[in-house]
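Q: Protein A?
A:
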Amino acid sequence: NNMLCFIRGNHDDPRYFNVDRLYFIDENHTLLNLSHIKFISDYSIIKTIDGNILCIGGATSIDRFSRTLNINYWDKESILPMEDEEKEFISNSNLDINIVCTHSSPEIAEPTTKYTGSWVLYDPLLKTDLLIERKTLQDVYDFLIQKHKITHWIYGHFHERFDTIINETRFHCCD
């Protein structure tokens, strides 16, 4: 009776992630009318009895220069900006967002800089793309905290573990 919900990572083929936006998990933690494994599209909300989770996938691969396009790297693997459509969806859902799950993190969360090693020598746009990625999620955070009390922001991508409280939001980086 376990439910596995996956958000898009930086090495994931975006075609596997659907276009639904709102999922309901009942008191038995069963995803209604769907299988027990779900690939969650960006800016979707998972509604549970314990709170509402906004999911945003994607990130920039620092080693994309060495990867093969459409095999283990995708043009649109990075975080998609929050457009007016997503803002409207979140605002009109009448749900309080308590938790945010992303692959990367906003600028204010650890690590405040991303290790790029020598990849920047081969990929001159890498540093800029990484800054844009973090700024995109910072914009999401800034938008959300205007009307929502975000208690947890859970992310990965950095292959390290961080656990920090910033402005009453606990940022968890899962290694």
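Q: Protein B?
A:
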Amino acid sequence: MDDGAAASQEPSFFWLIADDGWPVLALAGLLTILLTILFVPIGTFSLGLLVWLAHVLRIPKRKVPETENAIVAPADGRVIEVETLKQTDAFDQQAALRITIRTSLSDVQLQMAPIDGRITDNFCIPGLFNSFEDMAAVRADNERREITLKQDDGFSVVVVQLGGKMARQLVCRHHVGRFVKIGTPLGMARLGGVVDLLVPANCSSRIAVGQHVLAGETVVAYRPRREQPSV
């Protein structure tokens, strides 16, 4: 019987392509075939792009930290902001720490769960696809998907996928109620994109602006230590 738990994704090909990457790769493959029929040199160039796409759309091998209370990066990329918010809708107007990661086209595109937790929200808010030059405008106007993961003791984090000129498909196929393990596939912004990770303000940050992080592996913060139940 399905208990709502998300199992680790098995590789679907020897390239270890992520399930959410196959539609992009299939379209690129079809284009490569058509270009090769029309003009071989252009088709050869397109084949190189196909190999590059396979590289960034793969399921990477990551070592999930065993440290208790660790919160890991949900996406590959460079940290562009670390900011404490006085209040946010994500935590019922409570303070939060926001860590913003920008994924480049050379980074692995697959996003991973930052903690063990059950998905309590997963919804997309339609919007524009403006560039990421003005992040305040992006958060106000651009399309975004908000994914909330909550643990049994009530601790929760929110992953916000932000759309842009290149990232026009924000994907997370996990249904509400599903349990995911830290470091397992969560979704993808196809392609590139920016991710906001919102954690409670009492978490201790372990990341700096400009640092490059790996999804499912780099510790970006620690949640407060859980109190041991009294005997």
